[in-house]
Structures are given as structure tokens and as C-alpha cells.
Design a protein that fits this description.
Immunoglobulin-like; about 600 residues; about 45% strand; five-stranded antiparallel β-sheet; 4 helices; 5 domains; mainly beta; about 5% helix; disordered N terminus
Length: about 600
């Protein structure tokens, strides 16, 4: 028997509906073989089962039998129609596609006749060219909700966390709301001490450490966008204490939503190894670097405590933001494999290494300060996260943390008043300290303007100084006593000497200032230098220096007395009255 085909495809972007092809109509046209509806291999975003029905002698056999198939959005279904006389093939080429708009609609159930046009070169043209397939369109139905599941990493050591991710797809035009599931973990797997549960599906996901199942509810999967299904995911961490192979399954139908349930199970496998995790360490030497200075050498040491070699050892070491691979990386390894350490990169990669049984190996490379003219002075640490090192055997690493690396770069401006508290009208010395953290780059010129806060002025007489002037050649410009700002210019401050360790090169500017306080309560004046740069080497806004001016104390009359130096106080003698007035402030009152 020779079969001819006609393909029926649901409309693109429309939710598929059940399509039923009735053999009795075809039989009337002298086609003895019952039509068979088959799923094609085209990728689908959702499927729905339908049946062929009616009398016939097809593969299923018998009158009234039914053959289920899946018809999905974007998936054609093929209807095979056999000729009545197999020895006289009609040699007819059927049209490959029936109008999609006539196949899938959202109308109520009704019959619809789809004509299958043909190009015939035989007497059978009259029979097949007018063949009509009658379809009964079922009421609108929704595509299945799909769920996938994975572990990452999927090979771990006993007690090492692995992240479970459940990924959902929705091919419908409507959001799938009220998304819910319960994931019963295999015996031996529990929620990790730090569950780290996340969801971009919304809803409620709150597993507790040690739980043997995880429940989610109230989520939403977005609607499709054309032919792209909506998606979202949830994740959480689990651990297993015993080495084994664990299969975690969410059965078909266990993921529910307003748009239906998952039609297939979601499965994932976690392999918990009996092998011992790698031991590792990381060091910086020296433990400090300066901008535009000498590099520090990073050494990563890995030890395999197991009785077998570990192969395909691979990891990426991401550096802190303040350091990068040196211009001359000096990268090397005796771990084998391929070590990638590019100048200026923010990390290095090892791929395909091998560590022998009970053996150790190292990865070595140099780093320098990133953006050397940007101000920074602090310790940084570099870590290789737990599980970041992978091997073919499934052995991985615990958290590896480096020693502190002090990174010093750019410039800094610091201000201080001495003394920090004065009486009204008193004098304090303002000191501005300039620091250079770079190694080979001088700060030049040492130029900035400092605007004094309201109520503070340059003292009389004008007294300026500092090592930036006397040693480093800078100049000080002050208009006059009573002025409210000063300006510096010129000069040069060299970088830090090579091998100087955690330090800086510094110089100072000094100027005497004064302030008054007519209030009976103390006043506090604050002063900063805005962010700027010395010849392209940046400094941040300075610290805030404060000067407190004491309140004026009221004058008091401590005593009063009368005396008559020329004898008795009579009408012809004068009398002296003495009043003692006390100034409680340290400053004179005029």
C-alpha cells in the first residue's frame, strides 16, 4: 500500500487544540486505510493529545478504534492516507500544508472540512483531489506547563552543597498563575544549612535547613511572547551526607497552575562522591602593592588527599576589583593543563589540569594595582568559592581564602586643627597633609584651594609653612589676614620608595586661622578639601576637620567696696568705690 501525506499545523503563537480526523469520511471516498495522525520531529512549545476515530482497518485495527497522538503549537501532525488499490498507485503528490487558520481556532466545538488539494497525473486524480478530511475541533485547551530540573554542581563530595534549579516554561497566551509544587527530596538529601532559596516566579519559597521536601506556592509564569514561551525559575541548596547517586523527580502532574500541569516528569541526578575534597591555599607576596609599583606574586596551592589522580582540574580565580594581572604575568603551573593569565585581566583560568594521588601542585602569577591613579588604601582578600574547582572525578574544593593584600594607590588629602578647641578670637593651626601612595608617579603640582568655613578667617599676623613648601618646593598664597581661603601651587611629591612596605610619601601645608563666637553656646566649624587631582593622580574629598570655639562666659562682679582716704566720709571729702569684674573667658574682652 502506498501512503500519501497531508500536514496539519496549528496556528503559530496559538494554544493548540485537540484535532480529530474521522475515518468514515475518507472511507466514503474509496480509501480503505484509516488515516493515521502522527507527531513530527519539529520542536514544540506545548502538546495536546488527540485521537483518530471511526471505522477502519488501520494499524490499531477494528472498527471504532482510536489512536492517540500529540499535536503541539508549532508541531505539524501528518495524516497518512492509503490508496484503495495498492497495485495501482495513483502517484499523487498531496499539498504539504493545510491552511493553519482553518485547523486551529478558538470557536466552540464544530466540524470543519479541510480540503487536501493534489497534483495528480493519473486517473485517480478525481478521487483524491476532492478528498475532504472532516475535523471536529474540540473546545479550546491550554498547552502543558513544562518543568526541567538540574543540580549544580551535579557531582559533589559528601556534605558539599549543590544548588537545585527548577525551570518552568509556559507556552500559553495567558500567564500561568497559582504555580505550585512540592519537591520531595530523595532519602539522604536534605535542604542545606544555608538554603539560599531564590525565586523569580514570585510566590512563597521558604525551605528550612534539614527539610526533606520543598514546597512552593502562589507563583506566576509569564505568558509567551510570540513563539517564545514565558519562563521563570526557583532554586535552593541541598546536601547529602552519604556518597551515592541520587535521582530527584517531580512527577508529571505535580506542578500545577491556572494553565494546567506539567505533562512530563522533571528529573535530575546528583552524584555524591566518596572521595575527599581538595585542600587549598592562596597567598600574596609581598602582602602590599602600590599604584604603578612592583607586582605581588599570587601562589595557589592545591593538594589531592585521595589515592587516585584527579584529572581535568579546572577553575577560574576572579580577582578583587582593586588588582589585575600584571603587565608581565609571569604565569606558570605544574598542575598541567592550560593556564590563561592575560595582562590586565581580572582573573585567571586553569583548564584540564591533573593532580596525582596524594600530590600537590601550584598555580603562580603576578598582580598589580588596578587604576593606579584612583585613590585607595585598604586590605583586600581573594577567595576561591567552595565548589569552584571541578574535576572529572567529582572532587572539588572547600572555600579557599587568601591572606590580606594591602593595596595603596592614588593620592590622599587629610586635614586637622591644632588645638581643636579655642576661645573666641583664639588661634589654631590648620594642617593639610598630602600623601602619595603610588610608587613611581610623583604628585605635581601640589595645587589646591581651600575655602574656609563661614566664621573662620586667616589669623593676624599671617603665619604659613609646612614641608610641602620648605622641602618639596610648593608655594602658599594667602591674600591677607582676615581672608577666607588660601591657595597652594607648584612643588612635587615623589612616590613611595621601592620595597617601602605599607606606607606613603607625605608633606604638609600649615596656616594659622582664627574664629569668633559671640554666642553663649559653643560653635563647631567644619572644613574639607573637595576631591581633585595632583597632575592626574586623583584624591578623594578629604576628611572633615572640625574646630570648636568655646562660648563666651558672662562678666561677673565678684566684689564691691568703698574707701575714704582723706578721713571720714563727710561732705567735703571724696569716697572711692571699687568694683571687681571677672572675665570668665580665656580671651580678652575689649
Amino acid at each position: 500500500m502506498e501512503n500519501q501525506e497531508v500536514a496539519v499545523r496549528p496556528s503559530a503563537g496559538r494554544a493548540p487544540e485537540a484535532l480529530c480526523y474521522h475515518a468514515d469520511r475518507i472511507r466514503e471516498r474509496q480509501i480503505s486505510e484509516r488515516p493515521r495522525v502522527e507527531a513530527s520531529t519539529t520542536a514544540v512549545t506545548g502538546t495536546r493529545r488527540c485521537w483518530t476515530s471511526g471505522p477502519g482497518t488501520g494499524a490499531a485495527g477494528g472498527t471504532g478504534d482510536a489512536k492517540p497522538v500529540d499535536v503541539g503549537s508549532g508541531r505539524p501532525a501528518r495524516v497518512r492516507v492509503g490508496s484503495l488499490r495498492p497495485h495501482r498507485s495513483p502517484n499523487v503528490a498531496m499539498s504539504p500544508l493545510v491552511s493553519a487558520s482553518r485547523v486551529v481556532s478558538r470557536s466552540a466545538p464544530r466540524p470543519e472540512t479541510l480540503h487536501a488539494p493534489a497534483r495528480a497525473r493519473s486517473p485517480w486524480r478525481r478521487t483524491l483531489a476532492g478528498l475532504a478530511l472532516t475535523t471536529a475541533l474540540a473546545s479550546p485547551v491550554h498547552a502543558a506547563i513544562n518543568a526541567n530540573k538540574s543540580f549544580a554542581p551535579d557531582v559533589v563530595s559528601a556534605g558539599q552543597p549543590s544548588t537545585v534549579t527548577i525551570f518552568f516554561l509556559n507556552a500559553n497566551n495567558n500567564p500561568a498563575t497559582n504555580l505550585a509544587f512540592t519537591d520531595t527530596l530523595p532519602a539522604g538529601i536534605v535542604v542545606a544549612p544555608v538554603p539560599n532559596a531564590t525565586s523569580n516566579c514570585g510566590g512563597t519559597l521558604a525551605p528550612n535547613a534539614g527539610d526533606t521536601s520543598v514546597t512552593f506556592s502562589g507563583g506566576t509564569i509569564p505568558a509567551n511572547a510570540g513563539l517564545t514561551p514565558g519562563s521563570c525559575q526557583v532554586s535552593f541548596n541541598v546536601v547529602a551526607a552519604v556518597a551515592d547517586v541520587y535521582i530527584n523527580t517531580i512527577a508529571a502532574g505535580d506542578v500545577t497552575s491556572s494553565e494546567g500541569a506539567n505533562s512530563q516528569s522533571a528529573d535530575a541526578t546528583l552524584n555524591v562522591s566518596t572521595l575527599t575534597p581538595l585542600a587549598g591555599s592562596k597567598t600574596f607576596a609581598p602582602a602590599n602593592i602600590h599604584g604603578n609599583g612592583n607586582p605581588s606574586t599570587v601562589t595557589i596551592s592545591l593538594t589531592n588527599p585521595n589515592g587516585i589522580a584527579l584529572t581535568n582540574v579546572s577553575f577560574t580565580d576572579t580577582l578583587p576589583a582593586q588588582i589585575v594581572v600584571a603587565p608581565t604575568p609571569n604565569a606558570s603551573t605544574n598542575c598541567g593543563g592550560t593556564l590563561t593569565a592575560s595582562a590586565g585581566a581580572s582573573g585567571v583560568q586553569l583548564a584540564g589540569g591533573t593532580i596525582g594521588a596524594g600530590a600537590s601542585c601550584t598555580v603562580v602569577f603576578d598582580v598589580v594595582a588596578a587604576a593606579p591613579n584612583t585613590p585607595f588604601d585598604a586590605n583586600v582578600q581573594n577567595t576561591i568559592p567552595s565548589g569552584a574547582i571541578t574535576t572529572f572525578e567529582g572532587v572539588t574544593n572547600p572555600l579557599i581564602t587568601s591572606n590580606n593584600l594591602r593595596v595603596q594607590k592614588g593620592a590622599q588629602v587629610i586635614k586637622a586643627f591644632a588645638p581643636g578647641t579655642i576661645d573666641s578670637g583664639g588661634v589654631s593651626t590648620l594642617t593639610v597633609t598630602v600623601r602619595n601612595y603610588n610608587a613611581t608617579t610623583a604628585l605635581a603640582p601640589l595645587a589646591f584651594t581651600d575655602a574656609l568655613p563661614a566664621g573662620m578667617t586667616i589669623a593676624n599676623p599671617v603665619v604659613t609653612g609646612g614641608t610641602c613648601v620648605s622641602v618639596n618646593g610648593a608655594s602658599f598664597s594667602v591674600a591677607a589676614a582676615g581672608g577666607t581661603s588660601f591657595t597652594t601651587a607648584g612643588g612635587s611629591l615623589p612616590g613611595v620608595a621601592a620595597g617601602a612596605g605599607v606606607t606613603n610619601n607625605a608633606c604638609t601645608f600649615t596656616v594659622q586661622v582664627t574664629a569668633s563666637n559671640a554666642s553663649t553656646t559653643p560653635s563647631v566649624l567644619s572644613n574639607t578639601v573637595p576631591a581633585g587631582n595632583f597632575g592626574g593622580v586623583n584624591y578623594a574629598t578629604s576628611n572633615t576637620a572640625t574646630l570648636t570655639i568655646r562660648a563666651l562666659s558672662p562678666l561677673t562682679a565678684s566684689s564691691k567696696s568703698f574707701s575714704s582716704p582723706n578721713g571720714p566720709a563727710v561732705q567735703t571729702n571724696w569716697v572711692r568705690a571699687t568694683v571687681n569684674i571677672v572675665n570668665g573667658s580665656a580671651s580678652p574682652i575689649t
